[in-house]
Amino acid sequence: MSTAEPYYKVDHLFLLIGENPLPNYIAAKMLLKEGGTIYLVHSTDTTTRADWLLKRLNIKNAKTVPLGNNQANSYRIRDSIQSEVKKILGSYPPNQTFGLNYTGGTKAMAVHSYRAIFDALRIQHEPVFSYLDSDSLQMLIEQNNAPPRPEPVPIKLYLEELFNLHNLPWKKDRKPNFKPVLPNAAQEFLSAYLSPTQGHSTAKQWREWCKAKLHQLKDGYGFWREEKFLEGVSGISLEGTPEPIKKILNDYKMVNNTTGELSLQLAYQQGFSLLSDVCAWLDAVWLEHYVLQQIKNISQNLSIQESAMSFHIDDPNNSDDRWDRFEFDVAFIRDYQLFALSCTTASDKSTCKQKLFEAHLRARQLGGDEARVALVCFSQKPEWVKRDLEATVRDNKIEVFGCNDLKPNKFAKKLTQWIRENSPQI
C-alpha cells in the first residue's frame, strides 16, 4: 500500500532564484512530488546560481525561466511565468498541482510571480504558495482565509553538500578534519592559558616562543614551509617555553628525550596528517581542536548530524594551491541550519571583532539568514565585541564566548544554550 504524499507537495514547482541557493534547494527537496518538474525563475545575475542548483538537485524534470535583466519588470515576470503555466495546462492531464516558493529572488519577483500564478490558475487549481521562514526554521504553507500553516522541514543537509551547493569545493588534498587531534592536550593548553596565577604570562611566553622559533618555519608569505623542508627539521629548541606548556609537550610525547627539543616527527605520530598541521596546532589551532571536541560531546543530545574544522576552499582565480578562497574554522549543522565558530587565542577587541566579522560574512554566504555565528576568544569583555558587531551587521543573534566561558563544563552549557536559543524546533 503506497503512502499518500503530503498535501503541500506539487507536480509543478516554481522557485525564485536569489543570491543564496540554499532556500531553493530545501524547497525543491521538500515541496516537489516524485517525478515532478521544477521551474527556476532567474535573472541574468543569478544564472550561475540556477545552474549550480540544477546540478546539485539532480532532478530529471527541470526547466529555467530566464528573465534577463528584468527582475523588477512586472510585465516580463508575469508574461514569462504565465507562458509556462499555459504550456503545462495544455500538455498535462487536468489534475496537475502547482506551487510557488517565494523565499528567493527579489521582492519584486516575489510579488509579481505570486500574482502571475494566482491569476493564471485561480481557484480551479489552488496553487500552493510557500515561504521558508528563517526564524522558526519551518516552511510556511499559505491557506485560504487563515494564517499560514507551519510545517517542519524534514531535510538533513551535510557540510560538503552545503559547500558544493555554492560551488565552493574543498581542496582535494586538504579536506576538513572531522575528528579533533589531541583534544586532551588542547584542553590542557586551555587550562594553562586560563590559570588564575600564571595564565596571562603563560600565553604571552608561548606566543613569544612561537614567534621567535616556530614561525621560522614559515615562508615569506606566511605559509608553513613544504613538507620536505619540515621533514629535515631535526629539532626546535624549547628555550623560553613556559613550564606548563613544556610539561604538556613532554606528556604527549612531542619532545625528544635525548636532546630536550621539540620534535615535529614525534608530534606527527600523535595523529596529524601533515607536519605543517603539527606547526599549526602548536601555533594556535589547538583551540579549534578543543572547540570541535566540545561540540562532539554535545552532538547526540542536540541532534547535530555533522561537525568539522579547517575548511580549505579552492580559489579558481589563483593557480597557487596554497591560497584559499577563504578558510573556515569550526562548523556544524543541525538539519539544514549552519552554525559557524571562529576561533582565536587573541584577547584584544580589534582582532576579535575582525575575526567575528569575517566569520559572519562567510556563514551568511553559505547558510543564509538561518546561519548562526559565534566567536571563541580570550577576551575579558566578550560582550563589548558582541555589541560592536551587532551594531555593524545588524544581527542580534551573534554570540561571543570569552575566556571566562571556556572551561569544559561551562563551555558545554554555554554552547548548548546558544544552540537551543537559535533552534526553535529543539
Structural class: alpha/beta
Cα separation of the termini: 33 Å
Radius of gyration: 26 Å
Helix % is 40-55%
Strand fraction equals: 15-25%
Mean pLDDT: 92
Low-confidence stretches: none
Largest sheet: 7 strands, mixed
Sketch the topology as an H/E string, one letter per element.
EHEHEHEHEEEHHHHHHHEEEHEHEH
Number of helices: 14
Question: If strands are numbered along the chain, what order do they take across the biggest sheet?
Answer: 3-2-1-4-5-6-7
**How many distinct beta strands?**
12
Q: What spatial form do the alpha-carbon principal axes imply?
A: elongated
Q: How would you characterize the overall build of this protein?
A:
There is one protein chain. The protein is α/β, with parallel strands linked by helices and 426 residues long. The protein has 14 helices and twelve strands. The protein has helices at residues 22-31, 47-57, 74-91, 107-125, 159-165, 183-194, 199-212, 227-231, 243-251, 264-268, 275-299, 349-367, 382-393, 408-421, and strands spanning 10-16, 32-42, 62-66, 98-101, 128-133, 138-143, 146-152, 306-314, 324-334, 337-343, 372-376, 399-401. A seven-stranded mixed sheet has the order 3-2-1-4-5-6-7, with helices on both faces. It has a five-stranded mixed sheet with strand order 8-9-10-11-12, with helices on both faces. The model has no long low-confidence stretch (mean pLDDT 92).
